[in-house]
């Protein structure tokens, strides 16, 4: 386990799609007077294409490679920043080890598959991994399995914040208390 961190005041938020990482991250950064960066936004900006475009045109494997390279770049300049990662980022290559070596302030925003399916079903079209789900129930089953596969990565975070039935303000306050 890392004993010294490359950017010890950085705050990194991880969790499944729809767990609120970007909204929480943006509000937290404003409260703490830090900069905010969303890994997906950096990827999309650098590639001059949207995440669904990249996923569909280049394929999942090449998206994960791009994500890995961009994560390394973002972590290098993470000082004084709140950074939210895409839901899959912690689960590929050695990404989670790189995150853990950056800062002790890594937060997993943990939402149940039920909450996630409710939030994500109306916006599934813009999300390549879940666009196939025909009903909210089908989406719930898909997420339950997918979350199970990803838990071992997400749970390497230093802090796990349960977000079910909580407002963004409450989640931001809970994260703030742990920094
Ligand atoms: C993904 C989550 C998305 C985005 C891409 C893949 C995933 O980010 O990176 O569509 O594998 O869970 P958000 O979690 O920010 O929606």
What do you see in this structure?
The protein is an alpha/beta fold and 179 residues long. It has a single domain (11-170), classed as P-loop containing nucleotide triphosphate hydrolases (Rossmann fold). 49% of the residues lie in helices and 12% in strands. The protein is built from 8 helices and 5 strands, in the order E-H-E-H-H-H-E-H-E-H-H-E-H. Helix 2 packs across helix 4 and helix 3 packs across helix 4 (60-76). The model has no long low-confidence stretch (mean pLDDT 97). Bound molecules: shikimate-3-phosphate. The site of shikimate-3-phosphate has 9 residues, from loops.
Q: Calculate the terminal CA-CA distance, rounded to whole Å.
A: 19 Å
- Total number of helical segments? 8
Low-confidence runs (pLDDT<50, min 5 residues)? none
| Anisotropy-based shape | globular
């Amino acid at each position: 386990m890392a004993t010294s961190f490359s950017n010890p005041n950085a705050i990194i938020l991880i969790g499944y799609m729809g767990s609120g990482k970007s909204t929480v991250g943006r509000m937290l950064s404003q409260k703490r007077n830090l900069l905010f960066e969303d890994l997906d936004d950096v990827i999309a900006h650098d590639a001059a294409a949207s995440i669904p475009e990249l996923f569909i045109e280049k394929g999942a494997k090449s998206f994960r490679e791009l994500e890995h390279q961009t994560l390394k770049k973002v972590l290098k300049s993470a000082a004084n920043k709140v950074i939210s990662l895409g839901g899959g980022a912690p689960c590929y290559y050695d990404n989670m080890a790189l995150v853990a070596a950056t800062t002790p302030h890594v937060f997993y925003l943990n939402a149940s598959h039920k909450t996630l399916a409710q939030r994500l079903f109306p916006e599934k079209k813009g999300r390549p991994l879940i666009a196939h789900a025909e009903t909210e129930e089908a989406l719930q089953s898909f997420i339950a399995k997918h979350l199970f596969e990803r838990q071992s990565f997400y749970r390497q975070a230093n802090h796990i914040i349960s977000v079910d039935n909580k407002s963004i303000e409450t989640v931001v306050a809970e994260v703030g208390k742990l920094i």
